[in-house]
Structure to design on (197 residues):
């Protein structure tokens, strides 16, 4: 009984510490964020925004540089060990090996995670990722580019494998219930255009 109480208090203390890490001057956050266990932040001041009702399991890592701003929407869930890693390397130098180049690439490649996204355990989100509203990213996936809204994407690199909702009625229902700015026609067009490439 005492051990369970000590463990519960320890976990609660870790969640408070993680919340304080997020609330400091480096990260802009919405209300009601919850980060379980340990997390690591290595971010540029005022270059990471996290929306309200954010949840992350243990092992979260967020890291970026000034060329990779990170925006995480409202109602986002991140599984255990998710890594959100911004930063680019300029590999075109001919004067020396890359190890000796201290400046990152100056190409701006933001990371955007839309509202209502769920990212599975041990997934990696890299510069240039743009995950649409309501998308689900399968465990162990690596996201490097655009993922349409309300789809399920898996793999390395992550690609959409199916829509979350098989009927337009269900899609319209979730869009209405979440007060989304999207409409079902736009979601379907974006999803179809992804596969027409």
């Amino acid at each position: 009984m005492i051990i369970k109480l000590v463990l519960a208090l320890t976990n609660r203390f870790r969640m408070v510490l993680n919340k304080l890490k997020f609330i400091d001057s480096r990260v802009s956050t919405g209300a009601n964020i919850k980060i379980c266990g340990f997390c690591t932040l290595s971010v540029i001041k005022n270059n990471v925004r996290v929306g309200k009702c954010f949840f992350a399991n243990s092992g979260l890592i967020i890291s970026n540089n000034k060329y990779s701003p990170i925006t995480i929407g409202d109602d986002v869930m991140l599984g255990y060990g998710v890594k959100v890693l911004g930063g680019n390397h300029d590999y075109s130098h001919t004067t020396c090996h890359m190890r000796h180049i201290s400046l990152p690439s100056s190409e701006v490649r933001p990371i955007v995670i839309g509202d209502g996204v769920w990212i599975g355990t041990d997934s990696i989100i890299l510069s240039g990722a743009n995950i649409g509203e309501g998308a689900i990213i399968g465990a162990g996936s690596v996201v490097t580019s655009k993922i349409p809204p309300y789809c399920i994407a898996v793999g390395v690199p992550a690609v959409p494998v199916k829509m979350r909702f098989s009927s337009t009625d269900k899609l319209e229902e979730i869009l209405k219930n979440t007060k989304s700015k999207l409409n079902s026609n736009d979601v379907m067009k974006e999803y179809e255009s992804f596969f027409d490439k």
